[in-house]
Amino acid sequence: MTRYEFLKNLGLTGSALFAVTCLGGLQACGNSSEEDPQPTPNANQVILDLTQAANANLRNVGGSVILTDRRIVVARVAQDRVVAVTQVCSHQQNPNVSFNANANEFQCSVHGARFNTQGQGLNANGSNGLRVFTSTLDVAGNRVTISLV
Ligand code: FES
To answer: In principle, which of 1, 47, 113, 128 could form an S-S bond with 108, CB 3.0–4.6 Å?
Structure first.
């Protein structure tokens, strides 16, 4: 059992595990030949593996996926950027927001609310904006991380 595995078995995850292993000097960080800890999702995060078929749309600019269980729409708006917004429209709280790649904006199918990729409303029904979640795209790692807090 490696030190990393031992610490992980103690229940340490994510940044706590990183802090103990890297900052505590127990493991060389950066170019370690020892296996690097994989990011561990927690209750405040969603991590999408872009190698999975369900997330394949996010491999290309203009693609999007809807996480129906979380009611989140994730769109690949640029080669190096994704945007994650709530699927629940701010107009009358219907979960009908989706991404329109041709217009490069989020739209609600119920009454036509429109939102830009910063979540700002583009018409009267969208005037309350959309909640935008902090998200990162790791192109090399084929991974999207969405913070829910
Ligand atoms: S509920 Fe979305 S536009 Fe009315």
So the answer is: 113
